[in-house]
Amino acid sequence: MPRAYDLHMTSASTSAVVIYESLTGNTKTAGEMIAAELTAAGVPAVACSTKQVALQQLSEANLVIVGSWTDGLFLFGQKPGGIGRLSKLPVIDGKKAAVYCTYALETGKTLEKLAGVVGRRGGDVIGGAAIRRDRMEEGVTDFVDRLLGAIDNGALESNAPAAELRS
């Protein structure tokens, strides 16, 4: 079952970069959908792979969204896929961040572990979402709606507190 995490983040000056680690294409598709929905809502966004991070856009963005597929056994041991590449992402000190993972059956603690990786790269993680691969459109729309709500509530301001991830 997908888990939604609280997001607290004005869209007038907001731009975003979606960075994804994808094995079969599901996380890439979700990342591209997230970027497209944000852009359609007035928040310029680009999607890129961990293998080719859009450094110029990353330096200009005030929201970084990082996604991964869920790796591990079906019922336990889940973690973000491609953890090696994720842990070598460019430093994003001072930027608000959100995380997402795609999955088939169960996410375990994938989002919490991914939030930890992003936090160690300097991101201020404000929340995230698990997106089931067979309900991708619904999951992406829900996540983007929550991101937009958080943006409208001012959570991208530098003094806004980060929300805690909750299951």
Characterization of this structure:
This protein has 167 residues and is of the alpha/beta class. It has a single domain, classed as Flavodoxin domain (Rossmann fold, 3-Layer(aba) Sandwich). Helix content is 32%, strand content 23%. The protein has five helices and six strands. It has helices at residues 26-40, 55-60, 83-86, 110-120, 136-152, and strands at residues 16-21, 45-49, 63-71, 79-80, 96-103, 124-132. Strands 1, 2, 3, 4, 5 and 6 form a six-stranded mixed beta sheet that branches. Strand 3 and strand 4 form a beta hairpin. Helix 1 packs across helix 5 (136-152). The N and C termini lie close together (11 Å). Mean pLDDT is 88; it is low at 1-11 and 161-167.
What is shown here, in short?
The protein is α/β, with parallel strands linked by helices and 167 residues long. It contains five helices and six strands. The protein has a single domain, classed as Rossmann fold.
Q: What is the strand and helix layout of this fold?
A:
Layout (H helix, E strand, L loop, with lengths): L15 E6 L4 H15 L4 E5 L5 H6 L2 E9 L7 E2 L2 H4 L9 E8 L6 H11 L3 E9 L3 H17 L15
Parallel strand pairs: 1-2, 1-3, 3-5, 5-6
Antiparallel strand pairs: 3-4
Helix pairs in contact: 1-5
Helix content: 25-40%
User: What is the CATH top level name?
Assistant: Alpha Beta
What fraction of the residues are assigned to beta strands by DSSP? 15-25%
Radius of gyration from CA coordinates: 14 Å
**Structural class of the helix and strand makeup?**
alpha/beta
| CATH fold label | Rossmann fold
Please, what is the average pLDDT?
A: 88
- CATH architecture identity: 3-Layer(aba) Sandwich
Number of helices: 5
Question: How would you classify the quaternary structure?
Answer: single chain
Order of helices and strands: EHEHEEHEHEH
Residue stretches low in confidence (pLDDT < 50, at least 5 long) are 1-11, 161-167
Assign the CATH superfamily: Flavodoxin domain
What is the terminal separation in angstroms? 11 Å
**Count of all domains:** 1
